[in-house]
Design goal:
alpha+beta, five-stranded antiparallel β-sheet, about 50% helix, elongated, 3 domains, Alpha-Beta Plaits
Length: about 300
């Protein structure tokens, strides 16, 4: 019934003045139909149980298919012959290239992100000095849930930052998850010169082993899988403690592997263990900036 009414409407005198009016109406009809289909898909997805990530992917696929299908059908509506179709494509491309260069590059950037996958939803990335977790990828921009900035240790600020897709071509892009799933983190521990630094180093080594041994084994398995794609080679994946002398004491730096989003949690666990063990060791004291003043007057007073 609805189809018959649409056909009668298209044959009405309203369209007798020229074909562009009819093609405009058909184009709008195609857009409305695919919009309704997409909305129905969204309603269906919302009523289903499943993970947020899977629902997000289905929404994106529905949006892309609906837009692409409507675009192709509209092109055929406006091109009665193949030569006209090619001409329209040529004129359309030339006009966009001049007037909408940035938008075209954004769209090409979207294709690059979808096909080449420099990052995925959920990855932690850094671009143009902005660091965050990828929460959305659209045709012209991708969105990050910002971390860092005024918040320490890679915690979320709660802000969503939108970045044009063309930035994947013109700016450095750092992906925390795309290597082999782990990053190296370091915790500097400064103790006094009077402390038993060798004993302290041994304690820190044991603490690092306890808190990162499960990461090291998992990292070895992930590293084997990534060797075919990236030239990543680490001879040692186990944690290590390095010794350095600073002005205020002996610096013992713990270097260990952790997951990108677990850096602050791992630091907290290690520091709490360090504070607990050091409090029970009279030979070890944490250092802080100190000054030693020599005064001949005070020395002479002590002699008297």
């Amino acid at each position: 019934m609805l189809v018959e009414k649409i056909k009668e409407f298209l044959k009405s005198p309203f369209f007798s003045g020229g074909f562009p009016l009819k093609k405009i109406a058909l184009s709008l009809l195609v857009i409305i139909i695919f919009f309704v289909i997409h909305r129905m898909v969204l309603i269906f997805i919302k009523s289903q149980s499943g993970s947020v990530k899977s629902k997000y992917r289905v929404r994106k696929v529905s949006a892309y298919l609906s837009s692409f299908s409507a675009f192709i059908i509209i092109l055929f509506i406006w091109a009665e012959k193949l030569s006209q179709f090619v001409t329209i494509i040529g004129l359309f491309s030339a006009g966009l290239a001049v007037a909408m260069k940035d938008i075209i590059v954004d769209w090409i950037g979207w294709l690059f992100i979808i096909l080449r996958r420099p990052f995925n939803i959920g990855d932690r990335v850094e671009v143009t000095g902005v660091k965050g977790d990828v929460v959305d990828i659209r045709t012209f921009q991708f969105s990050l849930l910002e971390v860092g900035n005024w918040v320490e240790s890679d915690q979320s600020t709660g802000r969503v930052v939108h970045i044009p897709n063309r930035y994947v071509f013109s700016h450095h892009l750092v992906n925390y998850n795309n290597g082999f799933g782990f990053i190296w983190n370091e915790i500097p521990v400064l103790i006094t010169f009077e402390s038993n630094w060798a004993k302290a180093k041994n304690i820190l080594s044991k603490i690092a082993d306890e808190h990162s041994v499960h990461f090291s084994q998992e990292a070895k398995e992930a590293l084997k899988k990534k060797m075919a794609r990236f030239m990543i080679y680490y001879k040692y994946l186990n944690p290590k403690v390095y010794t350095t002398v600073k002005e205020s004491g002996v610096l013992l730096t713990i270097r260990y592997l952790c997951k990108p989003k677990m850096r602050r949690v791992s630091e907290e666990e290690i520091w709490e263990e360090i504070l607990r063990v050091f409090s029970e060791e009279p030979e070890i004291s944490l250092a802080y900036p100190t000054y030693r003043v020599y005064s001949p007057f005070l020395e002479k007073k002590d002699e008297d």
